[in-house]
Specification:
The protein contains 26 helices and 15 strands. The protein has 609 residues and is of the alpha/beta class. The structure holds 6-O-phosphono-beta-D-fructofuranose (F6P). The site of 6-O-phosphono-beta-D-fructofuranose (F6P) has 15 residues, from loops. One of its GO terms (biological process) is glycolytic process.
């Protein structure tokens, strides 16, 4: 049992070491001296073994208690629950200016207690600590999960593989700070002697979505705006030539710096776009220009060198940073510091670190990310709501939902427990969203009168911008926020037939105009949206995702589900090239089903442009 329990946690080297020290167990990632090796291993392995015996969280009594509790909650209605002020008070938390109100959840104080019991029983605190302490909790890849080390203060000590990684983190941050300062000041010049004022960041998935989200959120914040004055930052992610044209349109190669961002430096789309950008630069400025106009961010510095980039122009990170958790590595910090300056990004990292510290240290009952993650499990698994709407009342957060989609759905869209046991319940909610009030005029009809979709509202007290007309402040932020406050009550309380009739609504319209209410939401209120609070918000959601995964007992840090499509695309690529070369239509021997062959033949009928 012990062998089994640690199998997923050890690398081959570690296995040999630990087998010598403790013949019935393998190394499980904990750093300890040889003297306390055996004792430490017994403890860790026993804990893991205990977990293995109950590898499915759904087998434990705390899970069953919650499942039984669903019926009681289904008998309640939010419009009644909201009358109870003590309940409301018990469902409000605040941390570092981030105000969380979850009293519009379909939950009673008893639900909260049972959820916290489940969190305890799932070993949530221990799992959080294991993550922060650098244990190899990404078991299927044998990796630590240490994105929190990326924003640790300079003097911190975060151990991974027997060494403190914080000095390495800061070495890269210092390099970013120095390089971006040289570029921004004009000291670093392009091949023709001009300063580089435009940056194109090429990357996809986690190497694009987070940085784009942060960029959009900061691009209207007055201090960040001032720091970015005269500069342009654009992103190129898709392999679609339309995206290439869009990203490069109107750019002058002489003043453009291209940043290739790829953790692996093998992602097909990014490498193709990188080659396109290199050709675009060399066609205009000559081959030597690459040294001045192209830099890279990757964990694969050898591939960066093979691509022809000077290692001095490469900014590294580490395999213990997952792509979707990499915004606070050079993936986000380099392009965003080029645009906004390093001090702005330092504030962002400080905001993230503040929320990290809270997540690591606060008791579950007061822990904002833990509460969000537990409520997410409640809504999606126990109440069966497959979808969550992310509804920021801030246009600056327009790329929040697309980023959280990847963060959450790539992390928690899993079908097996950590040990590979198929799960008898669904994990990973479907996330989607749009800033309010735009969303209200788009899909809110469905969430008010159609399907029940738990909603997460995010608002800010002070706007980044105000509009003045003829010297008068136009209160558009006030207007925006009135909607932010109104929508959760409309969802929760609804409007019944009796009220409608009393208002004189004709009988034939009463059912059409009835709102059943009892639709759950929660509200997050930030004082304002700046680099620091943005960091808090992002860390809050990173840890919300991790919490749900920890409770479900899955590995939130791998992504095997994206592999099959990539493999099949390779096969299609080969067959398309072959068919183009030979002019032979694809048939049964090519290994595709007849539907795919037909589609491909329709595509192949037209010549590539
Ligand atoms: O295909 C999914 C994925 O591996 C993501 O996890 C990752 O964020 C993205 O591709 C990009 O990967 P890379 O940074 O290695 O190019």
């Amino acid at each position: 049992e012990l062998r089994l329990c640690v199998q997923a946690f050890g690398s081959d080297d570690d296995e040999e070491r630990s087998t010598k020290a403790h013949p019935t167990a393998r190394y499980c990632g904990e750093q300890c001296s040889h003297a306390d090796w055996r004792a430490s291993h017994r403890r860790v392995c026993a804990e893991l073994a205990a977990e293995r015996h109950m590898s499915l969280i759904s087998d434990i009594p705390q899970w069953k208690a919650l499942a039984d509790h669903v019926a009681a909650v289904k008998e309640t209605h939010l419009k009644d629950l909201l009358q109870d002020d003590a309940r409301t008070e018990a469902m409000i938390r605040e941390e570092g200016g981030v105000y969380l109100d979850f009293c519009r959840q379909n939950a009673t104080p008893e639900t909260l207690k049972l959820l916290l019991d489940l969190g305890e029983a799932a070993g949530l605190k221990g799992k959080i600590e294991a993550m922060f302490a650098g244990q190899r909790i990404n078991a299927t890849e044998g990796r630590a999960v240490l994105h929190t080390a990326l924003r640790a203060p300079r003097g911190a000590d975060v151990q991974e593989g027997g060494r403190n990684v914080v000095p390495e983190v800061w070495e890269v941050l210092d390099k970013i700070s120095a390089f971006t300062e040289r570029v921004r000041s004009g000291e670093w010049k392009g091949a023709t002697g001009k300063p580089l004022t435009n940056v194109v960041s090429i990357g996809i998935g986690g190497s694009a979505l987070g940085p784009l989200f942060v960029h959009t959120a900061l691009s209207t914040e007055p201090d960040a705006m001032a720091a970015a004055s005269g500069r342009r930052l654009s992103f190129l992610a898709n392999v679609d030539p339309v995206d290439t044209v869009r990203a490069l349109h109107g750019l002058d190669a002489e003043t453009t710096l291209v940043v290739i961002v790829s953790k692996t430096f093998t992602t097909a789309e990014t490498m193709l776009n990188a080659r396109t950008a290199r050709a675009w630069l060399t066609e205009r400025l000559g081959a030597d220009a690459v040294a001045k106009h192209m830099v890279a961010v990757s964990t694969n510095l050898k591939a960066v060198a093979d691509f022809g980039l000077d290692p001095a122009n490469a900014f590294g990170f580490w395999d213990w940073v997952g792509g979707r958790f990499s915004v606070s590595s050079a993936v986000g910090v380099l392009p965003l510091s080029l645009h906004y300056g390093f001090p702005v990004m330092e504030r962002f990292l400080q905001g993230m670190h503040a929320m990290d510290t809270h997540y690591r240290s606060a008791p579950l009952a007061d822990n904002l990310p833990a509460l969000l993650g537990l409520l997410n499990v409640w809504n999606s698994t126990f109440l069966g709501h497959a979808t969550t709407a992310l509804l920021p009342y801030q246009q600056a957060l327009q790329h929040f939902a697309p980023h959280i989609q990847q963060l959450s759905m790539e992390s928690n869209g899993k079908g097996v427990a950590l040990d590979g046991t198929p799960l008898p319940f669904e994990t990973g909610e479907i996330d989607f969203g749009e800033p309010g009030t735009n969303g209200q005029h788009s899909f809110y009809q469905l969430i008010h009168q159609g399907r029940v979709i738990p909603a997460e509202f995010i608002g800010v007290v002070r706007s980044q911008q105000e509009v003045y007309l003829q010297g008068e402040k136009v209160s558009s932020h006030e207007e925006l926020m009135c909607n932010f406050f109104a929508q959760p009550d409309a969802l929760a309380c609804g409007k019944d037939a009796e009220t409608l009739r009393a208002e004189g609504v004709p009988d034939q319209l009463v059912t059409h105009k009835t709102f059943s209410g009892n639709r759950p939401s929660l509200s997050i209120l930030l004082p304002e949206l700046n680099a620091y609070t943005l960091g808090q918000l992002l860390s809050l959601y990173e840890h919300r995702v991790a919490t749900s995964g920890f409770v479900w007992g899955i590995n939130s840090f791998d992504q095997w589900g994206v592999e099959l499509g990539k493999v099949l695309a390779n096969k299609v690529r080969g067959k398309v090239a072959e068919a183009r070369a030979t002019g032979r239509p694809l048939g049964a021997d090519d290994g595709f089903c007849s539907s795919t062959s037909r589609l491909l033949n329709r595509f192949l009928e037209s010549k590539p442009q």
